[in-house]
Amino acid sequence: MQDKAGKTVSTGFGNQAASPVIDPGKCTNCGMCVKICPSVTIINVSGQATVVPDNGMGCFACGQCTAICAFDAVRVTGRRMTPDDVLPWPASDRTADDVSLHNLMLTRRSVRTFKDAPVERELIDRILEMTASAPMGIAPSDVECTVFLGRDRVQAFAGDLDGVFRKWNSFFNPVTMFFMRVFGSKAAYQSFDGFLLPIIREMIHAREHGSDMLFYDAPCVLLFTTHPMADPIDGTIACTYAMLAAQSLGLGTCMIGTVAHAVNMDKKVKARWGIPADHKACLAMVVGHPAHRYHRVVKRTLAAIHIKD
Ligand SMILES: Cc1cc2nc3c(=O)[nH]c(=O)nc-3n(C[C@H](O)[C@H](O)[C@H](O)COP(=O)(O)O)c2cc1C
To answer: Distance (Å, rounded) from C-alpha 247 to C-alpha 174?
Structure first.
């Protein structure tokens, strides 16, 4: 038994470790927590599962020990985790099987037409509750979500991003593009010339004519950002979970990639919406009640599958 926190890998929480506590009255010394602990904080000392705070990476509150213990003998406290964050295992008829999960995935489409109706706050809360279960590089999550609730708020954000796109549009003129083509990387030139700039110009043009090609007049936008110490992919994984969560609630979504570039390159936009300057925007997602119903599923394939056996 041990409840003294040691050091652990540094994340947005700093390097303060969490503390696993093993209840000796419940522990049968089955060894599962020792086997499962990825940070090597719980180890076998003289045949007994023992918390050694400064061993290995130190406890970062992944909760694996608590989850695996069949005897409810382990609790973890710290790094935002409390002993109350342990829920009973759901009944098997309340978990998705491969068919129902696959159907949820297959019937998801990127939705770009929304009913003129707000997204209820309870649905947003439920999406975020479900999103919180997304895996992350190092637990607990260093992902933050900024919710632009209501069309007015979304359009205010879109207006700020339009300002960034206009700056880019004048900066990446034929002269800078010439230098980029000659002296820059081929991939950067191609992505600006063939993809980013044409899209930006379309969005500016559309906005001038009263149409929103960025957020499609959605009633809500979720922007996923990460602390600088987080794995950069964490926000994208969270956004993917949010997308499926929204789909399960009957809402339509579309990921919006251009937003992250604009937010990351403009300190004023970050400051205006309360995003810390050193945090990284990963991905945004529009959410709303879909205006139309789809009738068919479109099968997709990966670009290639390479099985090495
Ligand atoms: C990372 C990422 C970024 C995206 N960015 C945009 C975007 O900025 N605007 C947009 O209309 N769609 C965006 N999409 C949606 C894709 O265009 C969409 O997945 C594609 O149209 C295929 O449609 P489906 O999602 O219905 O299969 C993005 C998707 C992903 C995964």
So the answer is: 42
List, for residues 45-75, the tens digit of each pLDDT value.
999 999 999 888 899 999 999 999 999 999 9
- Does the pLDDT value for residue 2 go beyond 50? no
Cα 214 to averaged position of ligand 1 atoms, centre (Å)? 11
Could you tell me where the beta strands, DSSP code E, fall in the chain? Answer: 7-11, 14-16, 19-22, 42-45, 48-51, 74-77, 143-149, 220-226, 252-256, 280-288
Q: How confident is the model at residue 4 (pLDDT cuts 50, 70, 90)?
A: low
Residue nearest to atom 6 of ligand 1 (CA): 256
Half-sphere exposure of residue 109, counting CA atoms within 13 Å on the CB side?
A: 16
Residue 114: strand pairing partners: 290
Distance 153 CA to ligand 1 centre (A): 22
Which CATH code, of 2.60.40.10, 1.10.10.10, 3.10.120.10, 3.40.109.10, is assigned to 105-288? 3.40.109.10
